Amino acid sequence: MKKFTLVAVLALGASLALSAQAHEHAEKNDHAHQHMAQHNAPDMSKAKVSDTISVSGCWIRAIPAPAPSGGYFVVHNNGDKEVKLQAAASPAYKMVMLHQTTQKDGMSKMSETHDIAIAAGGELEFKPGGYHAMLELGEKAPSVGDKIDLDLLFDNNEKVSVQCEVKPANTRVN
């Protein structure tokens, strides 16, 4: 009986220790996600609304949570100087990153990117299989037809705000 009690006490102690470690790991993970989200969220409060840059056709793919969604749009630069898109943010997502999908040797690769150039007088389409906004850690999964706000920050300290329509996951083009 003493052996059984001792084994039970040791097992309970080990279980509590593992539970505490798991809780500590979960807290660190949550803190890391919060830090990443805070680090990723650009400060757009000092940026002025652009009168030469516009965005059209913005849409977001409806993907069930917790999977990230993709955001697609066309950036128009009506100015006389090249601008670079540096960051994006949305109140509906804790983390928004700019990504580019590339193809090499028959394989797709997605990577985070910054300073995406839009030529003076030009435009650049963000579309499936190319540039896109990766929207992560949403408060809830978006529903088809929802409107989501998205802010874009450029290297000239200007910003553009746009509403994006949520479209079905199988949408291929704007």
Low-confidence stretches: 3-39
- Averaged pLDDT: 82
Order of helices and strands: HEEEEEEEEEEE
If you compute it from the alpha carbons, what radius of gyration comes out, rounded to the nearest whole angstrom?
22 Å
Number of helices: 1
Structure class:
alpha+beta
The major β-sheet equals: 11 strands, mixed
Total DSSP E strands: 11
Give the termini separation: 72 Å
Overall 3D geometry?
Answer: globular
What's the helical proportion of residues?
Answer: 10-25%
* SS strand fraction: 35-45%
Task: Explain what the structure shows.
The chain contains 1 helix and 11 strands; from the N terminus they run H-E-E-E-E-E-E-E-E-E-E-E. It starts with a helix and ends in a 7-residue tail after the last strand. It is globular, with a radius of gyration of 22 Å. Strands 1, 2, 3, 4, 5, 6, 7, 8, 9, 10 and 11 form an 11-stranded mixed beta sheet that branches. It has 174 residues and is α+β, with helices and mostly antiparallel strands. 22% of the residues lie in helices and 45% in strands.
Layout of SSEs?
Blueprint (H helix, E strand, L loop, with lengths): L1 H39 L7 E2 L3 E9 L7 E9 L5 E7 L3 E12 L2 E6 L3 E3 L4 E4 L4 E8 L8 E8 L3 E10 L7
Parallel strand pairs: 1-11, 2-11
Antiparallel strand pairs: 2-3, 3-8, 3-9, 4-7, 4-10, 5-6, 5-9, 10-11
